[in-house]
Amino acid sequence: MTITATDAEAMRFKDRIGIDVGRRLAVEDAVQWAADNAVRYIDCQIDIDPNPLESFGEDRCAPIRDACRANGVRIGLHTLSAVNIAEVSPFLRDAADEYLRAYVDAAKRLDAGWIEVHAGYHFTADRDMRMRAGLERLKRAVAYAEERGVLLSLENLNWEPDLAEVHYLAHTVEECRYYFDAIQSPSLKWSFTINHATLVPEGIVGFLGGMPTDRLHTVRLADSNGEYELHMFPGDGMIDFADTFRRIEATGFTGHYMSAYGSLDDMLRGRDYLVQAYHPD
């Protein structure tokens, strides 16, 4: 069978689409699963079983590093958005700092390519105070990541209804720029979750126009109904993936995409849909 230039380009694009394994599998099993399914990039969450954060000492990390190198799999870590990086209460604020430092240490031992981080959340009346606290915490985390040679990638999170008491921070371009403008470090990049962008007026196009795309590290993929937080299978919602990919690639982005919807099998199947959307021929 002759492989055309278009076929080769489509295969290269598919190679760039990773899968967010989360905590569905132990990290060791996730690496083997990725290798078996020709997935080059995976996100893993290492908070609790089967991946408790405190278990990632050198004894566990060394064979994972070796497996990643042997199989051509690049692993990233994904912190839990339920941990409030904008924490201000005594004891808990120190714990939030230690949480990020522990992730950085684990990433270093695993030779992980990135850590997905968040800006935390507020309770409406305390927004400004918590934004300041979260910014200072991220500054400390980025400084520590620089020392350890680790990359942090800050995700734009989702809008919550206006009448909700709790709201995620960094869900609009304005809020995201608050952190990126204040932290001018090569150790802090942007993780663009496109379905989250559909929930605010600026949309995907506005985020690409308003954010520093030279700091774009990862694009997280799921479809959306445009009304509330969902991670839908591509094509089941309102996102025009062909147009979205064209706009993202036009920024000069050469990094990886990360599928984040449904089951592992759904995300494997979804990669073919996404490649077809961008390379219909």
Outline the structure in words.
- By secondary structure, this protein is an alpha/beta fold.
- The chain has one domain (5-278): Divalent-metal-dependent TIM barrel enzymes (TIM Barrel, Alpha-Beta Barrel), CATH 3.20.20.
- It has ten helices and ten strands.
- It has helices at residues 5-15, 27-36, 58-71, 92-110, 127-148, 173-182, 194-197, 203-210, 241-250, 264-278, and strands spanning 17-22, 41-44, 74-78, 115-117, 121-122, 152-155, 167-168, 188-193, 216-221, 256-259.
- The protein has an eight-stranded parallel beta barrel, surrounded by four helices.
- Helix 4 (92-110) links the parallel strand 3 and strand 4.
- Helix 1 (5-15) packs antiparallel against helix 10 and helix 2 (27-36) packs parallel to helix 3.
- The longest helix is centred in the middle third of the chain and has 22 residues, at 127-148.
- The radius of gyration is 18 Å and the shape is globular.
- The relative contact order is 0.12.
